[in-house]
């Protein structure tokens, strides 16, 4: 399959899913309160677009700010943990513990500390995306080939120089792979926080819409989230190809 | 790093408040923005809060009991929430529990919902039947107290755990014979599924059956009450004034809601407001004493009900959970 055919196929699949959904709802006579048809969802989206926009911006804003801090912390922790066996063994159990906590349970605590709104959403987006970055970066650094390190050491390189010249570049492919996962997780984090406690954001909007039985609007909220998630994923996938294309085998069969 | 981040988080959160004028008050609602919150937003919109020297920030809530925990944590200075949650906390943490200063919902919103023409003819006939009850909901927790007030045996009623948003559906499908509901929510849900809540269903309000506890109102933190009583007075005055505006012209209250949240359905929120006014706010008692006031005898009675229900170590005094000294003059609170 040529790349072009491949793209066509995936577009056809997406369109096909929506067409099936539409026809199925029509044929089975499913109530709009249970599962609205895609055409109704798009209609609701167009009708409410000006009112949805500020909510979408808020979600995008909290996601990106949370993601930024998450990457900053995740990267530093990953480097620290990856370059020292002691730090690795000490910190890992704590990290696993923290990342196993359902974030839904953490949001009310953030609200008690900071009040409802933007801060809990940013913090939730942040903590939810730290873990995959730490795991990937530390693995990347910890698995640097010992031969490379030996060569560096025989050239009298310091530990820091080895990290800078070998460890970090070696972990970049892992880092960028983690970014793609982390950005979608950040979205989930923001929306979770918004459904629990906020005045704005797509999560909050969906709750308001469902309390008014406007199910098509609830689904357009989901659609907005999916589109934003895919777009950000695509941006990071592009960045990954640009920055670490050297590490990928050409023409994966 | 974490410390730096906390500092940044604080800066982001409070930058707005720092530059504004007036006493900053963080106010939390009981739930997402709805028609029944019109007066709070109207008081802000029309500058009633500003005229009292207050800079009020209104945040949406996550439940009327959560209002109490939000204020106790110090994240909020005031809010709209449940009196019974105050009573519960006043018994265990008397120094931290918020104090009610303006009792807006005079009647409890809890009700037993049944189908008209179904097997339930009175509360006593619930014995031996299946009743849908959301676990953790106040209407479920209060059910044993309702039973002893109404004179039937709660042990003989088979309570089925259901999620609150499925209650009406399960009743319609005869999976349960009755549901323990919040009347404001349930009334609107029934309209939403296209049935007539007055004709197709029969309601047994807890309040009418002898469980006459109070419900949501405006509460403030003990800290604000002690350090800045003028601000509490200002807050109550502004809300009472805006409430009078909404009573005179309900559309004004709905308009400010649809302006704040353009996704709100004005017509539906108007029905919600009207229902809350007729069933929760207007009563013979609030007619006689004015909106916002409580009857000390009734409050004392409901405190002992709550005490028995949760096995509280001791009962707080009525004066500890409600402070009547901020009530505006009667003409601002009559209807």
Number of helices of chain B: 16
Mean pLDDT of chain A: 89
Proportion of residues in β-strands of chain B: 5-15%
Strand order of the largest sheet of chain B: 2-1-3-10-4
Low-pLDDT stretches of chain B: 1-5, 8-20
CATH hierarchy, class of the largest domain in chain B:
Alpha Beta
* C-alpha Rg of chain A (nearest Å): 22 Å
Strand content of chain A: under 5%
Distance between the termini of chain B: 57 Å
CATH superfamily of chain A: MetI-like
Total beta strands of chain A: 0
CATH superfamily of the largest domain in chain B: Periplasmic binding protein-like II
Query: Which structural class best describes the helix and strand composition of chain A?
Result: mainly alpha
N-to-C order of helices and strands of chain B: HEHHEHEHEEEHHEHEHEEHHHHHHH
N-to-C span of chain A: 10 Å
Defining key terms:
heterodimer, A: 253 residues, mainly alpha, MetI-like fold, B: alpha/beta, 2 domains, 15% strand, disordered N terminus
What does this entry look like structurally?
The complex is a heterodimer of chains A (253) and B (335). Chain A has 9 helices and no strands. By secondary structure, chain A is an all-alpha fold. Chain A has a single domain, classed as MetI-like (MetI-like fold), CATH 1.10.3720.10. Chain B folds into 2 domains: 205 residues, Periplasmic binding protein-like II (D-Maltodextrin-Binding Protein, domain 2), CATH 3.40.190.10; 100 residues, Periplasmic binding protein-like II (D-Maltodextrin-Binding Protein, domain 2), CATH 3.40.190.10. Chain B is globular, with a radius of gyration of 20 Å. The interface between A and B is medium-sized, with 35 and 33 residues.
């Amino acid at each position: 399959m040529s790349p072009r055919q491949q793209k066509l196929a995936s577009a056809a699949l997406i369109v096909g899913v929506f067409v099936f959904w539409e026809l199925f709802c029509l044929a089975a006579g499913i109530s709009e309160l249970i599962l609205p048809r895609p055409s109704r969802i798009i209609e609701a989206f167009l009708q409410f677009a000006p009112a949805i926009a500020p909510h979408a911006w808020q979600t995008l804003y909290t996601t990106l700010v949370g993601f930024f801090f998450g990457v900053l912390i995740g990267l530093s922790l990953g480097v620290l943990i990856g370059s020292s066996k002691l730090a690795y063994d000490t910190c890992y159990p704590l990290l696993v513990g923290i990342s196993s906590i359902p974030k839904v349970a953490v949001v009310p605590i953030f609200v008690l500390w900071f009040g409802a709104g933007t801060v809990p959403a940013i913090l939730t987006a942040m903590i939810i995306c730290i873990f995959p970055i730490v795991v990937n970066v530390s693995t990347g650094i910890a698995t640097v080939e010992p031969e490379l390190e030996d060569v560096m050491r025989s050239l009298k390189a310091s530990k820091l120089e080895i990290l800078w010249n070998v460890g970090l570049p070696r972990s970049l492919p892992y880092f960028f792979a983690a970014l793609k996962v982390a950005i979608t997780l950040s979205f989930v984090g923001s929306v979770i926080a918004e459904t629990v406690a906020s005045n704005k954001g797509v999560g909050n909007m969906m709750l308001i819409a469902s309390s008014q039985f406007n199910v098509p609007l609830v689904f357009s909220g989901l659609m907005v989230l999916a589109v934003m998630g895919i777009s950000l994923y695509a941006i990071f996938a592009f960045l990954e190809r640009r920055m670490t294309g050297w590490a990928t085998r050409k023409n994966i069969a | 790093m974490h410390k730096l981040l906390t500092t940044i988080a604080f800066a982001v959160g409070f930058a707005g408040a720092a530059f504004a004028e007036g006493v900053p008050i963080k106010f939390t609602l009981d739930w997402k923005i709805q028609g029944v919150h019109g007066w709070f937003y109207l008081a802000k919109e029309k500058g009633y809060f500003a005229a009292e020297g207050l800079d009020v920030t209104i945040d949406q809530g996550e439940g009327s009991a959560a209002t109490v925990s939000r204020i106790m944590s110090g994240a909020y200075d005031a809010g709209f929430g449940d009196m019974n949650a105050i009573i519960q906390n006043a018994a265990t943490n008397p120094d931290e529990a918020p104090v009610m200063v303006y009792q807006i919902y005079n009647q409890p919103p809890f009700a037993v919902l049944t189908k008209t023409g179904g097997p339930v003819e009175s509360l006593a006939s619930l014995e031996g039947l299946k009743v849908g009850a959301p676990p953790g909901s106040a209407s479920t927790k209060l059910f044993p107290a309702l039973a002893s007030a109404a004179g039937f045996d709660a042990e003989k009623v088979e309570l089925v755990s259901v999620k609150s948003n499925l209650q009406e559906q399960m009743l319609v499908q005869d999976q349960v014979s009755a549901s323990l509901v919040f009347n404001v929510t349930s009334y609107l849900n029934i309209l939403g599924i296209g049935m007539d809540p007055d004709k197709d269903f029969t309601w047994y309000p807890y309040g009418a059956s002898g469980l006459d506890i109070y419900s949501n109102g405006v509460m403030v933190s003990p800290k604000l009450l002690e350090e800045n009583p003028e601000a509490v007075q200002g807050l109550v005055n502004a809300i009472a004034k805006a409430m009078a505006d909404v009573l005179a012209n309900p559309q004004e209250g709905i308009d400010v809601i649809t302006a704040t949240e353009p996704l709100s359905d004005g017509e539906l929120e108007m029905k919600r407001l009207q229902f809350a006014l007729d069933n929760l706010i207007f009563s013979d008692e609030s007619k006689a004493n004015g909106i916002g006031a409580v009857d000390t005898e009734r409050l004392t009675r409901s405190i002992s009900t709550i005490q028995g229900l949760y096995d509280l170590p001791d009962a707080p005094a009525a004066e500890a959970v409600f402070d009547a000294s901020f009530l505006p003059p009667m003409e601002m609170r009559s209807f």
